[in-house]
Design a protein that fits this description.
- The protein is α+β, with helices and mostly antiparallel strands.
- It is elongated and about 95 Å long.
- The protein has three domains: about 1-165, no CATH class; about 185-300, no CATH class; about 330-430, Cathepsin B, Chain A, CATH 3.90.70.10.
- α7 (about 155-205) runs antiparallel to α12, α8 runs antiparallel to α11 and α9 packs antiparallel against α10.
- Helix content is about 50%, strand content about 15%.
């Protein structure tokens, strides 16, 4: 699509023509519409229309040709890239819908041109709407241009309209949830703080943060020094040594030998001395779960950030679900597949019946441990099954765009996709 738009620009310059006339053609008979490509926007009977089926079916839009070209200029309409906001799920969904003929209709149908040239954007069944004055850009709505999608103004308005809708619908409840999360986090922080401060005094350590750092350091050293495979094994060894007086001595020695994998008395003596010297710090890591508590608090604060809608631009700032976006724009039966079996079954269904792909809009989400360096972790992509020499492959498109640190488009085998991605969001096209 981008290449086609680049050709449009080239032809306009080569033949000294108005690029808008090349992008939006005018047809004078219904018969001529039969050859128009699906998803193409055109003029018929002085109305802007979009082709919606393989026959002569089309839908009339509520904006003029001039306004459409202003909102969705060549290349930019298909080259939107995510701004400095954590809404990859939203941008990937918008790009996916824009690339589909009926998805494009769903997006364009949200736009209405008013008599004064302003544009009102209202999602299907929404409780909110936004209006931008004629000739103004997205900043006129108070939007930070760095936080919104780059490219076509029309895509910026659709992105912002979704955020406004979610803010209006979810804002009060989100703020309440945010407050509850902060309360839980504060309680957790205070409940542990006394113990940590007492331990700092006991060990002569200046701060709680220094204590945590020292505990982690000793914990890693303990596992490395005695070849302990994970935290559970380290905890078991610590418990048997530190609480030896609570058990039968022979049983204690047997368990220590089994964990260490050696009966060398020098090694056993050394590990006992190490535990005695560092017992408090080792308990912090393997028994008091300092690390787990910190990770839990971090997750709580991330949740609070996601729900903390101080202004519209923060909506979805730490992620969201493309299925919610599909729902908001009027798609049907949106689903989230987040297990390997469901994802594999859906892909197999598309491979067996490729035409079914035209009935869905699809995005994919990566996990935290993507193995391909070309794929961003914890990120949303547009998704498409393609066939190369008869072999089914997956093509994913990164909403970061072409100038990012990762490639914009990556083609991979089904197996590679399953290794890097753990979620599919799908919805049926109306």
């Amino acid at each position: 699509m981008i290449l086609q738009d680049l050709q449009l620009l080239l032809n306009a310059k080569r033949f000294d023509m108005d690029v808008n006339d090349l992008m939006v053609k005018t047809y004078n008979s219904e018969a001529s519409i039969a050859n128009v490509e699906l998803g193409e926007v055109f003029v018929f009977n002085d109305k802007l229309c979009i082709k919606t089926d393989s026959g002569t079916g089309w839908e009339t839009l509520n904006i003029s040709k001039e306004k459409y070209c202003e909102l969705f200029p060549p290349v930019e309409r298909y080259a939107s890239s995510q701004g400095y906001s954590g809404d990859c799920y939203l941008v990937a969904a918008l790009n996916t819908m824009m690339a589909d003929p009926k998805g494009k209709l769903q997006l364009l149908s949200c736009l209405t041109e008013n008599s004064d040239g302003s544009i009102t954007v209202k999602l299907p069944d929404s409780v909110s709407e936004i209006t931008i004055e004629n000739g103004k850009d997205i900043t006129s709505l108070g939007v930070d241009p760095q936080k919104c999608v780059s490219g076509a103004l029309g895509m910026q308005l659709l992105e912002y309209a979704y955020k406004v809708e979610r803010y209006v619908k979810d804002g009060p409840e989100a703020s309440r949830i945010c407050g509850e999360i902060y309360k839980i986090n504060k309680y957790l922080e205070l409940s542990m703080l006394g113990d940590w401060e007492d331990e700092c005094k006991e060990l002569g350590i200046d701060s709680v943060e220094e204590l945590k750092a020292k505990s982690r350091e000793i914990g890693e050293e303990f596992k490395s020094k005695y070849n302990l495979s994970d935290n559970n094994v380290a905890e078991s060894l610590l418990i048997w040594i530190a609480n030896a007086n609570m058990y039968d001595p022979a049983m204690v020695e047997e368990n220590i030998i089994n964990i260490l994998g050696t009966s060398d008395p020098n090694v056993i003596k050394e590990v006992k001395e190490y535990v005695a010297k560092n017992q408090f710090l080792l308990y912090d890591v393997f028994c008091s779960n300092v690390i787990e508590i910190d990770e839990y608090q971090e997750k709580l604060l991330q949740m609070a950030d996601e729900y903390n809608y101080q202004d519209v631009e923060e909506v979805g700032g730490n992620g969201g679900k493309s299925s919610d976006v599909f729902d908001a724009f009027g798609f049907k039966n949106s689903q989230r597949y987040d297990d390997q079996t469901s994802i594999s079954n859906f892909i197999d269904k598309i491979i067996a019946n490729p035409e079914l792909q035209d009935k869905y809009v699809i995005t994919a989400g990566t996990n935290f441990g993507s193995v391909d360096d070309n794929i961003a972790s914890n990120h949303a992509y547009s998704f498409e099954i393609i066939f190369e020499n008869g072999v089914p492959m997956v093509k994913v498109t990164n909403p970061w765009g072409a100038d990012a640190s990762k490639p914009q488009m990556v083609t991979m085998t089904i197996e590679e996709f399953m290794q890097n991605f753990d979620t599919l969001y799908i919805a049926e096209i109306p």
